[in-house]
Each structure stands twice: as structure tokens, then as C-alpha cells.
Specification:
The complex is a heterodimer of chains A (210) and B (302). With 210 residues, chain A is α+β, with helices and mostly antiparallel strands. Chain A has eight helices and twelve strands. By secondary structure, chain B is mostly helical. Helices cover 74% and strands 0% of the residues of chain B. The chains are: A alpha+beta (210), B mainly alpha (302). Chains A and B meet through helix 2 and helix 3 of A and helix 3 and helix 4 of B. The structure holds iron/sulfur cluster (2 copies).
């Protein structure tokens, strides 16, 4: 087994839904129009008679037991040494089986046919940098690091949070390695509005320009 | 939508081809072999499966533009699709050899037929397992029900396409395969029951799959796919062929001089009924694949 296991911890109590991460990711990874490696879902939520804004950043969970890797017939989708899930475009035939199998539906197909998604900024982390979304986050809601290293900041914060830190839809069995603090509160609150998905703005403008 | 009508066509053709081949083999085994039927099954089988496989290749855009990448297809044997590629290839090889023997030597070794039938069963089941292995994301793609349902539908559609052609080419042969009479009545019932089970387990999917499961079932029975489901699948695909088969069975019983096993000289209306019923089964078989692919909603659909 790899001795490194990179993961992310997102503290929802401080996320303000500004989508700076969404933008930084687009600039860093040059994702195609209408496709996102990370985005923020926001909606009005009712908690104890108050209305507040719920913000839920999403991205590939770099699962420890990823369905996308299991189903990929060509081995194009694979788990790297650092525990992250990557796609080798040189092997991908574009069968889209991985897109179908991912419960989080974070994968998309490029114009050229290959499938792509968040890499946890593999090209940056291998150079000792943080993922673009993490380093840009204005409230330091996003934290990143090695989950197998008990002395890393993320491990310490996870340990302190105890069972308050949860992954999305853990019952799907993927063992997601993006954790959230405050997930139960956010998802448990009464939903009072439609969900705004960071990026819709861009799509509307694009359609308007067409 | 990740997969669409093209993949539905592939699932349908693979199932129908597998069923047709199996029926062809069985039709040739009896004391009084139905040779036209065997030939039809042996031709339709590999051709349908090959065309279906071609659709799969066409849908894989990145591979289509870099064909050498298809050699990677069996690198990950944890992948159901990799096994599918192996199963489809071996089936095609066996079926084509069997067909060649039939055309050249006029007969085929029973053991080769048997291997072909076993592989046909694998092909039909695999189309269900393929979707089933993405079941964690799409509650409608239930691993326990879909493979069985697709095998039953493969049998129905395989029988329908072979019977349809045989009715036109050699009507006298149809009555010879005793299995067909019962299949026309039993398979629609089994298929209908399996669909009810599928909808029930999908609607009752637990935890984070609950919302998507219920929404998928609603999309089928009362939502955007309701017309296709009720009219295309239930009425045309199941009820109509079943009713026509029932009428034909009654007619057969009312005319006892047409004893079982003897060549039934079909009257005009009986033949029309049979043709309509077979066509209905084929429409229903396609609708089933189409609806299962299209109406499925992912657990992350908020
Ligand atoms: S979130 Fe989806 S794409 Fe990412 S590792 Fe998990 S299963 Fe794979
Ligand atoms: S689309 Fe590419 S990465 Fe996804 S399963 Fe197919 S070959 Fe693998």
C-alpha cells in the first residue's frame, strides 16, 4: 500500500460560497467551458426559523475504494502512489463507464473523447504546492494534506473533529477522502430555495452570447 | 445523460443476438430439426452481436480516434467491461465457426453448439452486469435483478426475431419447436414480474440512493418516460404478444387435428397474429434497454 494518502477537509462553517476556488481551479486547470473540476452548491437553508445560506463545495473525492477505477477496462483510471485517483488520457478510450459508475458524478468527457476530472492538482502537489482551490480559499475553509501522517494539519484537525467530519454519501461505499465539517447540519437543514451551482453563471452568459 | 440510445441499441442487439443463436442451436437438436430456424438463428446471432459491439466502439470517441488504445481494453480484469470484451469476442469466434460449419458441412458438432449456447448466456447476462456494476451511482441499475431480466428479455427477443424470419421463410418449421409455444406465454409473465421487482427494489433503495431511486421509478411510471414505458414496453412489448399468443393457443386447441409435433399449416390470420406478436416483442425488448438506460437517475442529481 502507498504510505501517502492525500485528502481534503472542508470546513462548511466558514465557507462563504464565494466560488473563488471554482475560478482558481478553472484558471489553473483550464477546464472546458461548462465543465468544472470543483464548484460550490449554494442554497437558502432554514435553521431554527432563521434563513441562512448553505454552501457545499464539491469535487472528486479521490475515494479510497473508487468505483471509477474498478470499472475502467483500460486501466486509464488509476490510483496513484499518493492515494489520489488520476486518469491517464493516453489510455482512455472514452467508454464513459467511469462516469456512469461514480456516485458523485464528478467526471466529464472532453471534446477529444477522453474523460477528465479533478486531479487534486497533481501537477502542483508533486512540486510541493497546494491545490489551487486550497491555496486560494479566502476563509481557509479548505485544508489539504496527507491523511496517513498523524502530524499533518489535516490529520490533526480531522482527529479534533472526530465523527463531526464526514464524507458525502458514505453509504455508497467509495470511502471518499474529501471530508466536510458541518455536513449533517448543512444537509439536515430545511431547503428553502433552488440549488445554485457555481458555474451556472458562466453557462448562462455563454448561451446569451451564442 | 452519460449513455444514450446508442448504448441501448448495443444492449438490445447483444441480447437479441445471444438469444437468437441459442434458439438456433436448440432448434437443430431435436429429433426433427428445424433447419431453417437453425440457420436464421446462427446468422442473426453473430451479426447482431457484431453490430452491437461496433456501436460500442463508435460510442468510445477517444478510442475511435486512437484505435491502438483498444488494445488496453483487457488490462483491468476487475472491470466488467473488460470481461465483456472477452466474452463478446469468444462468443463471436465460436458462433462464426459454427455458422461456417453449418453452411459448408450442413451440420455442426453438438459440443460446439453447447459452448456457443453457454457463451450466449454469458453475453446476455453480461449486458445486465455491465449496468449493475454502476449500481452504486444509479439505483435503477440493480445488480440482483438486471442480469436476470436482461437474460429473459434476450430469450424473448431472440425467439421473436428467429420466429419472425421463420414464419416468412419456412412457416411449416415453426410448429416443430415445442419450446416456442410455451415460451411465448411464460416469458412475458416472467419479464413483467421481474420489472415489477426491479421497480420495487429501486423505489425502496436505502440511504443516499433513496431519492434517486424514487425519482427514477417516477420518471418511468408517471414522468417523462411514462408513455414509452406503458405503451412501448408494457402494452406493445408484453401484453400484446402475450394476448396474441393466447389467441393462437386457443385456436390450436380448438383444432385438435393439428397435433403437436406435426407441421402446422398456418392459416393467413394465424401467421399475421404471429408476426405482429413477434414484432411487438422486439419493440418491447428495445424499449426495455432504452428505458433502463435513459430513465436512470444518479444518486447525485440535486
Ligand atoms: S469521486 Fe468519483 S471520480 Fe472521484 S475517486 Fe470517487 S468514484 Fe472516482
Ligand atoms: S472513459 Fe476512459 S477512464 Fe473512463 S472507464 Fe473508459 S477508458 Fe477508463
Amino acid at each position: 500500500m502507498s504510505d501517502k494518502r492525500l485528502g481534503m477537509l472542508i470546513d462548511l462553517s466558514v465557507c462563504i460560497g464565494c466560488n473563488a476556488c471554482t475560478v482558481a481551479c478553472r484558471q489553473e486547470n483550464e477546464t472546458p467551458l461548462t465543465k468544472f473540476n470543483t464548484w460550490v452548491e449554494s442554497w437558502d437553508a432554514g435553521i431554527d426559523g432563521r434563513v441562512t445560506r448553505a454552501n457545499l463545495p464539491k469535487l472528486c473525492n479521490h475515494c479510497a475504494n473508487p468505483a471509477c477505477v474498478k470499472v475502467c477496462p483500460t486501466g486509464a483510471s488509476y490510483q496513484a502512489e499518493d492515494g489520489t485517483v488520476q486518469v491517464d488520457p493516453e489510455r482512455c478510450i472514452g467508454c464513459k463507464y467511469c462516469m456512469a459508475a461514480c456516485p458523485y458524478q464528478v467526471r466529464y468527457q472532453l471534446e477529444s473523447g477522453e474523460v477528465d476530472k479533478c486531479t487534486f492538482c497533481h501537477h502542483r502537489t508533486t512540486e510541493g504546492l497546494l491545490p489551487a482551490c486550497v491555496s486560494t480559499c479566502v476563509t481557509t475553509s479548505r485544508m489539504f494534506g496527507d491523511l496517513n501522517d498523524p502530524d499533518s494539519d489535516i490529520s490533526k484537525k480531522l482527529a479534533a473533529a472526530g465523527d463531526k467530519a464526514k464524507g458525502l454519501m458514505e453509504d455508497r461505499g467509495m470511502e471518499p477522502r474529501v471530508y466536510y465539517i458541518g455536513l449533517d447540519e448543512t444537509l439536515g437543514a430545511e431547503q428553502l430555495s433552488a440549488v445554485h451551482k457555481g458555474g451556472n453563471v458562466l453557462r448562462r452568459r455563454e448561451e446569451g452570447n451564442a | 445523460m452519460i449513455w444514450d440510445a446508442l448504448i441501448a441499441c448495443y444492449l438490445f442487439l447483444a441480447g437479441m443476438g445471444a438469444g437468437a443463436f441459442a434458439l438456433g442451436a436448440i432448434a437443430g437438436w431435436g429429433k426433427d430439426p428445424a433447419l431453417t430456424m437453425k440457420k436464421v438463428g446462427f446468422i442473426v446471432g453473430p451479426v447482431a452481436v457484431a453490430v452491437g459491439t461496433l456501436l460500442l466502439v463508435v460510442d468510445a470517441h477517444a478510442g475511435l480516434q486512437n484505435p491502438l488504445r483498444f488494445f488496453y481494453l483487457i488490462t483491468n480484469l476487475n472491470s466488467v467491461m473488460a470481461w465483456g470484451v472477452i466474452i463478446l469476442s469468444v462468443f463471436l469466434v465460436v458462433a462464426v465457426i459454427d455458422l461456417a460449419l453449418l453452411l459448408v458441412k450442413k451440420e455442426t458438432p453438438k459440443w460446439l453448439d453447447g459452448i456457443g449456447v453457454a457463451l450466449a448466456l454469458c453475453v446476455a447476462a453480461y449486458t445486465g452486469v455491465l449496468l449493475g456494476d454502476a449500481g452504486a451511482a444509479f439505483p435503477l441499475w440493480n445488480m440482483a435483478v438486471l442480469p436476470v431480466l436482461f437474460v429473459v428479455s434476450a430469450a424473448s427477443t431472440g425467439i421473436a426475431v428467429v420466429a419472425l424470419a421463420t414464419h416468412l421463410l419456412a412457416p411449416a418449421e415453426v410448429g416443430r419447436v415445442a419450446l416456442l409455444k410455451r415460451a411465448g406465454l411464460v416469458l412475458p409473465l416472467v419479464e413483467g414480474a421481474l420489472v415489477i421487482v426491479l421497480l420495487a427494489v429501486t423505489a425502496g433503495a436505502p440511504g443516499s440512493a433513496a431519492a434517486a431511486g424514487q425519482a427514477s421509478v417516477a420518471a418511468l411510471v408517471s414522468g417523462p418516460y411514462a408513455v414509452a414505458f406503458w405503451l412501448g414496453f408494457v402494452v406493445v412489448g408484453l401484453a400484446l404478444p402475450f394476448a396474441l399468443e393466447l389467441v393462437r393457443a386457443r385456436k390450436g386447441a380448438a383444432a385438435p387435428e393439428r397435433s403437436v409435433g406435426a407441421d402446422v399449416a398456418h392459416d393467413g390470420s394465424g401467421k399475421t397474429l404471429a408476426l405482429v406478436g413477434d414484432a411487438g416483442v422486439l419493440v418491447g425488448g428495445f424499449m426495455l434497454r432504452y428505458l433502463v438506460v435513459m430513465a436512470a437517475l444518479p444518486v447525485a442529481f440535486m
